[in-house]
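User: Once you have settled down, look closely at the record that follows, taking as long as you need, and be ready to discuss the fold:
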Amino acid sequence: MKQLKGIKLLLVDDEPTILQFLELGLLNEGFEVTTAPDGMTAVTLAKQIQPHVAVLDVMMPGMDGFEVCRMLKKIGNIAVIMLTAKDEVDDRVKGLTLGADDYMVKPFSFEELLARIHARIRNHFPHLMEEVTAGPFSIDDRRKEISLDRRVLELSPTEYELLKFLLINHGLVLSKALILDKVWGYDFGGDENIVEVYIRSLRDKLNDREHRLIRTIRGAGYRVDFT
């Protein structure tokens, strides 16, 4: 990925050691980082600095992460990654319903968090980047074009949106339900097998007959790998 231009992150966690660890790591990656030890402080700071991405702990005293997420989404176009120590489906559903863009369970690796932050930036703020690249691919969202090794692919509008979503989230497993929501829209009333049809078409156009690029993760969804 090319050089980012002034990306602002807001880190929210009531555990000082976690907050300091993430702050140092993300500052070292070149981000502008602001920290908050609680929900009320986070909301106040978000209004002032208008962060691009908020990394938000769920379990906090006072205002919990769910309420903070809801308020951040009212403030502006803030991509929210929620952190929790509880790997429970109900919590994930609640957070995503309130507008969270991603969800991670503690403990997690810094490298995975960094990958997810980059994915949110590529998805929400492509205009802040000199060039959106993912492995051998280049994404030009203004022209709605994706190039592979500098060759522009011939894609339908839906194929473009699907491949873009897969690429900006490369390395992550994406379920059919999530793909339908993000590419076709939450109100899509068709069969989720439409995803398989379009994946097959993309594989043909990418000469990915052995499924080494777009991998099927049995029972979970799809993942793009560049290795």
